[in-house]
Fold these 3 entries.
Entry 1:
Amino acid sequence: MQFRLTQEAINLTGRKPMQDKIFIDSNIVIYAYSGTEIEKSQVAKKAIKNNKTVISTQVLHELANTLHKKFHINYLDISATLNECLDDVDICYMNKQQTVFKACSIAERYGFSFYDSLIIAAAIESECPVLYSEDMQHNQIIENKLTILNPFIL
């Protein structure tokens, strides 16, 4: 996947339909900025645009890390991309102590990695019924509160 920073990378500011509250995993955010995965980029942009979207501070961390390590983007451009991302989503959930402990519980119960569990915990705590992620099991239900969906196979 090639990363492409452009003025119109997502450009979803303005009115949104606000139909469903959806938590967006970092891999979906990264696809929204993809210059080579055009179909996935369109799906990711649509998911962000057509829903009330929530990310967490962890998603911002992972986005910054991926942009720097994988795409060799400098930190000034990464900062601009993070700001653009924050403009395009509706809520940025800040992980708390309780989020970390909930992640441990989820990791133990479901066998997810700690960092995937932290995304799941943040989605549950921000009261999202759906988590969009490409990296987890499609249609899995967590604690009867959250359904993981892969938006690329819907």
Entry 2:
Amino acid sequence: MAFFKEFLTKQLLKKQLKGVSPEEQEKIMALINRDPDFFKRIGDEIQSEIKKGKGQMEATMHVMKSHRDHLGKLMNDSGFNRNNIK
């Protein structure tokens, strides 16, 4: 079951990150797999903000800003270089 869930997540991620190299996509996928519940919560919060009338970008920025400390910790623990994000 976990394999199927990871496969679907990977396919959705590829669709969202069309312009991102496969290597970077793998790094992002590994980051998501470190704490999938955290990223699900972020997605749910973004959807909630959109339902309140915010645009997708505004909702995403608002939610990500409120979780930046935990996201930064995950990125540092994963060796993910934030300076390489385009």
Entry 3:
Amino acid sequence: MPNPAELNPADDTLAALLPDGVLRDVTPAYLDEPRGRFHGRAGLVAAPRDTDEVAAVVRACAARRVGIVPRGGGTGLVGGQVMPDGPAPLVLSLERMTALRGIWPEENVLLAEAGMTLQAVRDAAAARDRLFPLSLASQGTAAIGGCLSTNAGASAPCATAPPARCVWGSRRCCPTARSCAT
């Protein structure tokens, strides 16, 4: 693990190494936690379209010793999607990776890229007679990657209901057949 003091800021030198079309403007949407409690910094924002572009971005950052802050849907409330100090990192946004890679209903498996919205995942599951029970305050607009990677939605949408994990199980062992929802 590199020492943070040895990292370089993301800059135009790094930008020249990145695939065409992946850079975005650095805007407050990429730097602020939704409640305004945490504010970050970034030298560049990359929004790759596929895993090959993600790999190219990671290789370029590793070669230049530039830190990466991954960003899913930007709905996190713990400040993990922002870097408040140190060398300006590259923010790696997964918002453009929105493909549904496959559904295997007999195995209760759905493979979605990180930028796919919760509503799109729910719709895809419903089209195969399955239920995707993740529940969030932002409902269908949240990107699925951050929700699952942090196990968001493990609590119930209201204080009087039992935790969703008690009802549905964890995301890894969630019973998705419609018969389980009744």
